[in-house]
Amino acid sequence: MKKLVDKTIFITGGLSGIGKACAMAAAQEGANVVVVDMPNDLSSLLMQDIVAINLKAIFLACDVSKMDELKSAIDKTVQVFGSLDVALNNAGIGGESNKVADMTEKAWQQVIGINLSGVFNGMKYELIQMLKQKKGVIVNMSSILGKVGFAQSSHYVAAKHGVLGLTKTAALEYATDGIRINAICPGFIATPLLEKGGITDHSKIMQHIVDLHPMKRLGRSEEIAKGFVFLACDDSSFMTGSTLEIEGGYLAQ
Asked: Electron transport among the record's keywords (predicted)?
């Protein structure tokens, strides 16, 4: 039996990597899928793939660092589908690598603006809509680096720690309003985000990252998508303020 039939799923950063895998998984589970991302050449191709699975899907162009754009995207979602049942705040970037003293203000603000403020911006208007409905589910994409440090990535680490704090706080605030809020902490996943950071299959950095995981491999986006479906559906009905770690043993060390 499909687990998300007729649920409206709102996914930021849904054009590639983990977001794309979650969008595809939601469509396969019968959901109405709203893919939210910066516009690019991938949008029409991805939407063709999703529509082939489930005709009820739309793409909305949006910069998550801009609160008014997220509000408009959520308003459009409700206008088209009538409700907002599940939101996945997934949009994120890696940013440039540097030690704290060498980090530029521009680099810091860019990562914080998308990876942390972008989650807050989404949650604010997702919650306003879900409170009207008296129900809803929010899943925030954090990282293993939301639980530990990682040299030369202070902006990313700070943002992902912040996502977990925001998740737990909001979960407490809305626990009696029919709204569940949880987070996922993936390990390093084979996605375009790694490639943008210059980490290729044959680099020494890649081998080092693989070796950090006791399972000696990177995760796959589809593995994270399965965790998302679990948190999005009623199988996790007694979970809120929790963190689902899908990380090949990274945090067990």
From this structure: no
Between CA 68 and CA 123 the distance in angstroms is: 13
What is the C-alpha to C-alpha distance for residues 185 and 161, in angstroms, rounded to an integer?
10
Fold entry, domain 8-189+220-252: Rossmann fold (3.40.50)
Residues identified as active-site:
156
Which of 75, 81, 23, 78 lies closest to 53 in space, CA to CA? Answer: 23
Q: What are 210's two structure tokens?
A: 């693989």
> In the chain, where are the structural domains located?
8-189+220-252
Look up residue 186 and give its two tokens.
């993936």
Cβ-based neighbours of 105, under 8 Å, separated by 6 or more: none
If 0-12 CB within 10 Å is exposed, 13-18 middle and 19+ buried, where does residue 168 land?
middle
Q: Phi and psi for 10 in degrees, rounded to 5?
A: -110, 115
Q: CA–CA separation, 10 vs 92, rounded Å?
A: 15
Per-residue pLDDT of the chain (253 residues; tens, 9 = 90+): 999 999 999 999 999 899 999 999 999 999 999 999 998 766 777 778 877 777 789 999 999 999 999 999 999 999 999 999 999 999 999 999 999 999 999 999 999 999 999 999 999 999 999 999 999 999 999 999 999 999 999 999 999 999 999 999 999 999 999 999 999 999 999 877 666 655 656 578 888 889 999 999 999 999 999 999 999 999 999 999 999 999 999 999 9
